Amino acid sequence: MNKLFDLSNKTAIITGASSGLGWRFSELLAKSGARLVIAARRTERLQELVRHLANVGGQVHAITLDVTDSDSITDFFDQCQAMDIASEILINNAGIAITKTTIEQTEADWNRVVDTNLKGAWLMSRELVRRKQEDARCNIVNVASVLGFRGTSHLTSYCASKAGLINLTRSLAVELAKFNVRVNAIAPGYIETDMNRDFLRSSASDPIRKRIPLRQFGKPEDLDGAILYLCSDASRYVNGAVITVDGGHSAGI
Fold first, then answer.
1. How buried is 72 (Cβ within 10 angstroms: 0-12 exposed, 13-18 middle, 19+ buried)?
2. Catalytic option among 158, 190, 229, 237
3. Is 229 a catalytic residue?
4. Reading across the β-sheet that carries 11-15, which strands appear in turn?
5. Taking each helix axis from N to C terminus, what angle separates 120-132 and 156-176, rounded to the nearest 10 degrees?
């Protein structure tokens, strides 16, 4: 049974790896035996993660990457190719949110969020499959959000981008299956990270907590099972799925 979840001898690319969920996913996959290519814009933070993962014993390469820039993506895969790295797993985790009302939000704000959260995942997936040609045999996992299913104020661009990412996941799953590519997603609920910890631990978050059936916010490690499942052979017949990890938040009204 353990072999189903074993990632030994598999290589995984993780975008947005320099902090938050990407940092956690990197730890998880390294401990599960995967070779890693960690990618983000912040080079210093990537090197810090490399040093951290050295204690885990995994093989790690760090490459600076901006997923909103197609030239940066081309250079990223050129570097992977030069190092003879052929990845079987891609986790499209890079994402941002800008909290403003629709009236306050600028076109530049909108483009930055949508380009990072949605276009970046499409560009990365397209280039990975293009490089691997007809028999890609790879596994793409997109990090969506429950806010791709339900809207909220002050996050219109984020909600729109995550809704688009969910349907991108399904569309790619249909189109790329002929190349032996599986495409799935996770949709986390409110997960405590460095960016939102102060808010989620304050009384201001109480109304949100009360709408979650489990009456608590998630931790990054609560996503471990879903990520490991979708990255491993345990999900080898799963394609086009979106696994919600939100304490039941999206199940209620």
1. middle
2. 158
3. no
4. 60-64, 35-40, 11-15, 89-92, 138-143, 181-188, 242-245
5. 20
Q: Residue holding tokens 């052929």?
A: 86
CATH code, domain with 65? 3.40.50.720
Domain containing 34 equals 2-243
Q: Is residue 248 part of a domain?
A: no
Distance of CA 163 to the CA centre of its chain: 14
Q: What is the DSSP letter of 170?
A: H
Q: What's the structural domain count of the chain?
A: 1
Q: Secondary structure of 31-66 in the HEC alphabet?
A: HCCCEEEEEECCHHHHHHHHHHHHCCCCCEEEEECC
- Burial (CB < 10 A; 0-12, 13-18, 19+), residue 108, is exposed
CA distances from 231 to 99, 119, 153 (A): 31, 22, 33
Taken as a whole, the chain contains a residue count of 253
Q: Is residue 250 part of a domain?
A: no
- Does residue 253 lie within any of the structural domains? no
Structure confidence at residue 3 as a pLDDT band (50, 70, 90): confident
Beta strands 35-40 and 89-92 are unpaired
Give CA–CA dist 88/95, Å, rounded: 22
Cβ–Cβ < 8 Å for 112, 96: yes
The 10s digit of each residue's pLDDT in 38-77 is 999 999 999 999 999 998 877 899 999 999 999 999 999 9
